[in-house]
Amino acid sequence: MSPPARTVFRTCPLCEATCGLELTVVDGQVRGVRGDRDDVFSRGFICPKGTTLGQLHDDPDRLRGPLLRRGGELRPATWEEAFAEVARRLPPIAERHGRDAVAVYLGNPNVHNLSGMLYGRVLLKALGTRNVFTASTVDQRPKEVSSALLFGTTVSVPVPDLDRTSHLLLLGANPLASNGSLATAPDWPGRLRRIRRRGGAVVVVDPNRTRTAAQASEHVPVRPGTDAQLLMAMVHTLFAEGLVELGAAAGLVAGVEVVEGLARDFPPEAVAPLCGVDAATIRRLARELAAAPSAAVYGRTGICTQEFGTLASWLVDVLNVLTGNLDRPGGAMFPKPAAGGANTAGAPRYGRQTLLGRWRSRVRGLPETFGELPVACLAEEIDTPGEGQVRALVTVAGNPALSAPNSGRLQRALASLELLVCVDFYVNETTRAADVILPPPSPLERGHYDLAFYLFALRNVANYSPPVLPRPPGQPDEWQILCRLAMAAQGLGGDADPALADDAAIRFLVGRAAADPHSPFAGRDPDEVLAELAPRTGPERILDFLLRAGPYRLTLDTLLEHPHGVDLGPLRPRLPEVLRTPSGMVELAPEPLVADVARLRASLERARDRDDGRLVLIGRRHLRSNNSWMHNIGTLARGKGRCTLQVNPADAARIGLEDGGAARVASRTGALVAPVELTDAVAPGVVSLPHGWGHDLPGVAMAVAKAHAGVNANLLADDDRYDEPSGNAVLNGIPVQVTAAGPGFSQTDT
Ligand code: SF4
């Protein structure tokens, strides 16, 4: 008799869309994955990545136990041996050279993971280093900086109300490939289609005619790296033509006249030669935005990863405010997540001043933002000798060897570390240099709740998924790994009980809530609250507490009773309650951004010497990939090679490139040879490579990824270029020389 099939529901952890999945499990094996038609948010939507969750679990290359470097090779070890090694080698480095000698890098998967979200900070606290790096300064720090300055917290990001808007202006975003980012919604394709079906417009500003642009009402090709200038000219037009109307935000916005003054220097005629969009089109974009019954402006990775990333991110919301679309249905709205967040806690107004650059990096003096340094300076902090030099690195679910700019330099720097400890379940381009690898359980072996992405969800929902499969004997949960690592770093040994760190973490949260007059737990005895949360431990206990303390007063038990999620309704206006600025107003003209406009003004001069014949490189996304994730899944890797250099046929003819031939691409920092794909989707003067590839490095143990290695676009990204207010890497608009190359594709660095 064949074993019975079990149907389980869980949220997909593979991107920000948070789709509900229905899994068929037979005898401990996932036999099928499809969209959960009853999921309150995704209603059955699924993309190709979501169907491969079982394959990720079964991947023979996924590590099932720790690895330790012995005799120069990574070899299997017990958990005890692995933690003992960390305990033996990590604390002495901090003792000898100071706490900043140990750096930490937290990768993007941490925000898709409850343990990463809740216990990453336990590790950071234990390490006590100022050398904290995360994937945020690769591609989203500008939005966090502008949101904190305008609205008071990094997570106060107004999201486009796709389901009710009649006009959507997208910049640097390709949600048909990415499934959306900092705007959580399953089924972007359907939601965008429905805007047009109800008579609305979707306008895409992007240097590349992406899938999203191809299906939009209008595609406006902009020169890479000039979105901020274009947006500023639109702001200029609104003021010049008397189109400013604050709507719901009237009386709650400070600095409108300052913005008007700043925009005077950016008439469309001055901006057009730089951004390659004519003045009439810029004016029309502004007028249509102002005239729409409801509208939302949304910008994402493409505008964050450029020289004026923070200004561009700021101007997106300036346009939302000036056209009366902030905080109204169909406009740009603030979600209200069930487990709370920085803009639901504490007093509804009069928050803390956002301070940037409280300290600076040792070598180049790049500014700290929100406790982190820019990843653009990680390599130099490791390879530049001197006091405070980074000598050990802890990475958690991160692959900076591929994702950091000038990653060739970082790859060499990683090899020079005294100690590299990685929490990861692959031997990838970063972890191949590790001394200790501590693999977390597979996503199916842990509980899931999207603590991060519900902060940006286009509908207020809450959904918890218990583990689908049991952890194998001896495999610690990820929170236990992070706590043991934290305790080892503190000198408590490799065998310290992670429950002690867990208890301290929940006690801290309960104690803080008890002291907060705005919390439902205000004045409560912490022991009494902890007794109510018993017998749960770990992330589920903290989640239960956060839900109870959140704005809907849910409990984890309620979520467990609703395997398809709890729908808390459409977004509702939140002004002024959502604001956490010290003034209690929307600060439309915060000083750091006003100061940075001088740099933007100076960029207009560059339009004159723009046509120097050089090409600029931009990135791109693909539906079957998520950064460097998922490249070891055979089903997703199949088909036409995706890591190609897209070149406009006019440029190809000039340079002598052929479709399917090879091109050598070189920048200040590196060079590589990539296959050529001729397409007029990229404008003349622009070439495009996707990021997250380049898996053919020695020591990488990912068979499928190696067979479809591609080349690493970030060898070409210049770590000298960054967005000044946020320190974010510049990954778009990189000047490159492109020439024909002989057969064979390879990655090298100069
Ligand atoms: S869109 Fe994202 S969340 Fe949905 S199935 Fe695909 S990878 Fe998973």
Give a brief rundown of this model.
Helix content is 32%, strand content 16%.
Characterise this structure:
By secondary structure, the protein is an alpha/beta fold. It is built from 26 helices and 29 strands. The chain is globular.
Can you tag this structure with a few keywords?
binds iron/sulfur cluster, single chain, alpha/beta, 750 residues, 7-stranded mixed β-sheet, 6-stranded mixed barrel
Average of the residue pLDDT scores = 95
The main pleated sheet reads as:
7 strands, mixed
What is the helical fraction, as a range of percent? Answer: 25-40%
Poorly predicted sequence stretches spanning 5 or more consecutive residues: none
| Contiguous helical run count | 26
How many beta-strand elements? 29
SS-derived structural category: alpha/beta
Which strands sit side by side, in order, in the main sheet? 5-4-17-16-15-6-7
Secondary structure blueprint with pairings:
Layout: E1 5-11, E2 20-26, E3 29-35, H1 53-58, E4 67-70, E5 73-76, H2 79-97, E6 102-106, H3 114-127, E7 132-134, H4 136-139, H5 141-151, E8 159-160, E9 167-171, H6 175-178, H7 188-197, E10 201-205, H8 211-214, E11 218-220, H9 227-240, E12 253-254, H10 256-263, H11 268-275, H12 279-291, E13 296-299, H13 301-304, H14 309-322, E14 332-333, H15 378-383, E15 392-396, H16 400-403, H17 407-415, E16 419-423, E17 436-438, E18 448-449, E19 459-462, E20 464-465, H18 478-489, H19 498-514, H20 526-533, H21 538-549, H22 556-560, E21 566-570, E22 586-587, H23 591-605, E23 615-618, H24 634-637, E24 645-647, H25 649-655, E25 662-666, E26 671-678, E27 686-688, H26 703-707, E28 734-741, E29 746-748
Parallel strand pairs: 6-7, 6-15, 9-10, 9-13, 10-11, 12-22, 15-16, 16-17, 23-27, 24-26
Antiparallel strand pairs: 1-2, 2-3, 4-5, 4-17, 8-14, 18-20, 19-21, 23-28, 24-27, 25-26, 25-28, 26-29
Helix pairs in contact: 2-18, 3-18, 5-14, 9-11, 9-12, 9-14, 11-12, 18-19, 19-21
Iron/sulfur cluster binds at residues 12, 14-15, 17-19, 46-47, 49-50, 179, 186.
